[in-house]
Write a structure and sequence with these properties.
CATH architecture of one domain: 3-Layer(bba) Sandwich
Bound molecules: flavin-adenine dinucleotide
Strand content: 25-35%
Structural class: alpha/beta
Order of helices and strands: EHEEHEHEEHEEEEHEEEEEEHEEEH
Helix content: 25-40%
Largest sheet: 10 strands, mixed
Number of helices: 7
Shape: elongated
CATH superfamily of one domain: FAD/NAD(P)-binding domain
């Protein structure tokens, strides 16, 4: 007989880890299946910001910004050794996309959405202090604001959440590739290929709810499920980062690229500097994603223009894939909100943010709970509430 779990989660990125942790905390039996390594996918290729996303105010995603700011506060508390506040310089140039007064309004709104005691303070840097800006190009500089957000290491954060899931009883399968799932009377029979020392071994597990947290692989995973579950039409949008050994600054810069007015971050990272990112439509297998020459040149050009004296070569470059709704809008204008495709026994998590993983996991748990309740009622098992579990609030659990 295959081992049976309440929930089987495919994908050990931040979303899979978050759902596994939340489910395990709430007393459900959970299997978490990851093919490569914890956080090996998108969850180690982000800009590593725990932020509300100041730029999403431009596209009126107020709900997302508010929720992310709330999550920022939680993560600064429950993971205070790996989620750290930092200052962000935001220079505004004449002829740029925004005027200083518009940015000021944005920052006021950001502060309001953050609520009290949540890194909301900002100020305009006096011109006399512009020499603190690490040699930032000051030609046509109109104003510089300074505000706060937080930084982390995305992979470490994911690994911490996985460890917490395990501590609360989740069973981990890694490296183990999900191969297929077949619908059963109440759930799925899942086949995985576990990588063992002497080769791989097929294992079958049963679960009542299957959670597809496959990030950019999500529809490839859905394609192998029988019968085919609902899928959302998405585009994969590549984002490249460059890493430099030399540290430009201990603070962060939020820049506007001169050529196309996109937002680009220059961040302190592992004693050096991280610069990113790009937005390029990607087709093909997510396993093969890598930075293109054009993307590297684009980021280098921004660095050369903004910090002419910083003439170092990057020591590393990598790319990750955003999962965004497929439409004709530019990638920047597409919603960053998480979306779900679901049936009573299946939930797939599309898109979302590293910052919001805990809130997303909570939504998934509520969906599982509701579906269990409906299934129990349909099966006529008397009082449906006997089948229910209490969702434990993970915002109080240190990771
Ligand atoms: C360039 C870029 C910058 C970003 N910057 C930020 C930021 O600064 N702040 C922020 O909050 N968010 C940011 N994001 C968003 C954030 O990184 C993602 O939302 C998040 O990491 C997605 O996590 P995930 O778990 O959904 O996907 P992933 O991390 O990709 O996890 C999916 C996992 O599924 C596994 N998998 C795939 N197929 C199988 C299979 N068959 N069997 C088993 N396992 C499988 C993969 O190996 C992978 O580990 C950024 C995203 C990008 C692309």
């Amino acid at each position: 007989m295959p081992q049976t779990f309440d929930v089987c989660v495919i994908g050990g990125g931040i979303h899979g880890a978050g759902v596994a942790q939340a489910a395990a905390l709430s007393g459900l039996s959970v299997a978490l299946v990851e093919k490569s390594g914890w956080g090996a996918g998108t969850s180690s290729k982000s800009s590593k910001l725990i932020h509300g996303g100041l730029r999403y105010l431009q596209t009126f995603q107020f709900g997302l910004v508010r929720q992310s700011l709330r999550e920022r506060r939680t993560l600064l508390t429950i993971a205070d050794d790996i989620v750290k506040p930092n200052h962000f310089y935001l220079p505004i140039y004449k002829g740029g996309r925004f005027k200083p007064w518009q940015v000021r309004i944005g920052l006021v709104l950001y502060r309001l959405l953050a609520g009290r005691n949540n890194l909301g303070g900002f100020k305009k840097l006096p011109k006399s202090d512009w020499d603190q800006l690490e040699g930032l190009n000051s030609a046509n500089l109109a104003a510089v604001f300074i505000y706060q957000d937080a930084q982390t290491d995305d992979k470490t954060l994911t690994q911490r959440v996985v460890a917490s899931a395990k501590q609360h009883g989740a069973t981990l399968f890694c490296p183990a590739r999900f191969l297929t799932a077949e619908q059963q009377e109440d759930g799925y029979l899942v086949t995985i290929a576990q990588q063992l020392e002497h080769g791989s071994e097929l294992t079958t597990i049963a679960c009542r709810t299957l959670v597809n947290a496959g990030g950019p692989w999500i529809n490839r995973i859905a394609d192998t499920i029988e019968p085919k579950p609902p899928m959302i039409n998405v585009d994969l949008v590549k984002g490249t980062h460059l890493q430099f050994a030399q540290q430009l600054s201990a603070k962060c810069f939020y820049l506007e690229a001169q050529s196309d007015h996109r937002a680009v971050f220059v961040l302190p990272y592992k004693g050096g500097t991280l610069v990113g990112t790009t937005e390029t439509l990607f087709e093909g297998n997510p396993d093969g994603v890598s930075p293109s020459r054009e993307e590297v040149d684009y980021l280098l050009e921004i660095m050369h223009h903004q910090f002419p004296h910083f003439n170092h070569n990057p020591i590393n470059a990598w790319a990750g894939l955003r999962v965004l709704p497929a439409n004709k809008k530019s990638p920047f204008k597409r919603s960053r909100e998480v979306q779900f495709a679901e049936t009573p026994n299946y939930i797939a998590i599309y898109g979302g943010k590293l910052t919001g993983y805990r809130a997303t996991a909570e939504v998934v748990l509520k969906k599982i709970r509701k579906s269990m309740q409906q299934r129990a009622a349909l099966a006529g098992s008397g009082n449906p509430t006997t089948a229910l579990f209490q969702i434990v609030d993970s915002s109080k659990v240190k990771i």
